[in-house]
Write a structure and sequence with these properties.
The chain is an alpha/beta fold. It is about 55% helix and about 10% strand. It has an 8-stranded mixed sheet, with helices on both faces.
Length: about 450
Amino acid sequence: MRTLGTAMSTVLIVCAMSAVLVVFTYTLGMYLESAGRPDPATAIATGTGSRAGVGEDFAVVFVVPCLNEERVIGETLRRLIAVSPLDSLIVVVDDGSDDGTAEVVDGFAGPRVRLLRRELPDARRGKGEALNHAIRFLLDRGMPGDGAAGHRAADRVIVCLMDADGRLGPESLATVLPYFGDPRIGAAQIGVRIGNRAQNILARLQDMEFVVHAHVFQRTRSRMGFAGLGGNGQFMRLSALLDLGENPWSQSLTEDLDLGVRLVLSGWRTKCLPHVAVRQQGLVSLRKLVRQRSRWFQGHLQAWRLVPSVVSRASGRVAADLLNVLLSPSLIFVASFMTMSLLASLTGAAFSETAREQLFQPLPIVSWYVLTFAPAFLLGPLYARVSGDLRWAGGLVYGHLFILYSLVWLVAGWWGLWRAVIGRRGWLKTERLADREAGVALGPT
């Protein structure tokens, strides 16, 4: 029996190590590919591209879904009004708030700002339903004057999705809109930065998470036309949204992931522009962060319904990478078993002199360190370079902390799975800080 247990343990360890090596190899490949020839986004962002003026004839509609956002929505609207064209429209969807959100938005009401109020029982059915409501309003009423969506072809209308705490940079539209001069582009995702990243280590690590994802994975996928969409700073062509039906967004808890995959499967190209960013608040409570990520994880599980469509409608690198994105939650469980195996080994070592002698040797310790922290030497310096407010050594320290920070997904993953198993699909809304509490939330990108 002991021999069988040892054999099974060995098999599990080999499988886990193989999974780690596959993930590391994949990450290294994406890192090297992203660090190769410059992304065309760089040329556009730095003013050396050839599309100047291409985006001037687009109508822009900002859509801001809100649920109890009185703490942050005022500053978001002030920023949008300041950085957007005079003929743009800002549509705020109040999804059944019971605080002062609607009153704050009413203070900005005018030709450029429209408030759509959803009341229970129709309200609070998920972010996707609120966004679909905004699209229906846009098609029915349009924008004021000659810029009305109803008077302009849908492929010349760009819908920008903003979270209620989003702070759009003044250069964003000038950078993004020229890309839609290519009729194949259905959506573009700009970078996301955490405005209060200096508030504590947890906020800083969330900033690193967004930067690493954009500059390693998104840049590479963008070159091939299938960058992912996520939360703040999504720009979408109205005609591309309408290609997905009357209700483009699903009821998934990660409606942005779902939308991005379906756009690609419908033949549209999606781009990522990491050199321009929207700022948002980071969570400063570990409990609230795990809660948020459990929703993201559960939404990824819901997105598995798209796997048959990817297999049947996509091919080659596109299919492989979309499947990698959709099936990535399974890696959480592999990592969980590896962590439990390590804890079991350490527990056994505490009671066995033989086990201590086997474990606490240079080769096992170095092997564990390399397998665990090797990505820190890639991702840490990258973050320091992109962030601009860290030295190389500081980036390396945060690279190691980032590996430990990733353990948050282990707890969030099992929580999300449990919610899925018992049938709970309610929206776990991210809580906001008032701007004064977030400290430098309005500081530089």
